[in-house]
Each structure stands twice: as C-alpha cells, then as structure tokens.
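JOB MANIFEST
job_type = single_chain_structure
chain_count = 1
residues = 153
[input]
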Amino acid sequence: MADIYELFMALDLREGIPDEEVAELRWHLGLGDQPEALRIVAAFPQVAGDDGEAVVDDLPEPLMAGRGRAWKIGGALVSLLEHAPDMAGTLTVRQEVHPDDFDIIGELLRWLAGQVDDRHRGADGAVHLGWTRFFEADRFEALVVRENVVLWP
C-alpha cells in the first residue's frame, strides 16, 4: 500500500523576497540550479547504514520538482513560478508527497507561509497554502500553516 498524498498550491508571493531565496525556491521547484548556500531548507539528512552503523549524510534535493505523469494521484505533476507585476511571482504546485517527507517539506511550506500575499492569511493569522488529498480519497483537506506549524492531514 502506498501512503501518497496530493499537494496542491496556487499562491501569490509578496514583493521583497531576496533574490537568493527566490533562486532557492526555483531550485526546489525544478526550475533552476542548486544555489551554493541553502537558506530556506538548510539540511537534508539521509540515514544510511553500512556495516551495522548508521551514517547521516546531507544530500540536498529539490522538494517539489516532480514533472510528468503522477504515480498515484492521476494527472500530471507540475511546479510553476511565474513573474507577475507588483509581486515576486505566482506559484502553482501539484506534487505527490509521502508522509515520511512531511517534516522537510514542512520547512519549505513554513517559509512560503511568510512570503505569501496577505489575501492567503486568515483573520486568525493562519495561512492557507492550498490543499492535500490522500490518493484514495475523493475530498481535499486544507493545507494550513498556523503559528509556524504545518497542519498536515
């Protein structure tokens, strides 16, 4: 059985995001090269075992760079960042994610919550980033960051 979720976001990003962070976001979306310094998600720990000893390596990889046919959710995987007047850009993402990756993807989502236009922010301060759906479900659940915590399904 697969524990795969669809993650969908359509966001407007505010002006004033530093160029270095936009470059890193573009890398995470599969739209640019890996920057020398990673600031949004700084560590990518991967545990490997060799001769019975656990070794933790730092292996950076883009978090939302899937393209083409989706494995479980149907349709296509996409990540787009388009320039728009009076803002840093418009972002659309549709990706398959596994719960094992919620923590590291959550780092990127917490950063995004601080970069979105105010219309994505509720009166209670929670930021509505998009939607998630378990691959076998027929209903979406809101993807929200509240008090710097991603509220995963």
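[summary]
The longest strand covers residues 87-97.
The chain has one domain: 5-151.
exit_status = 0
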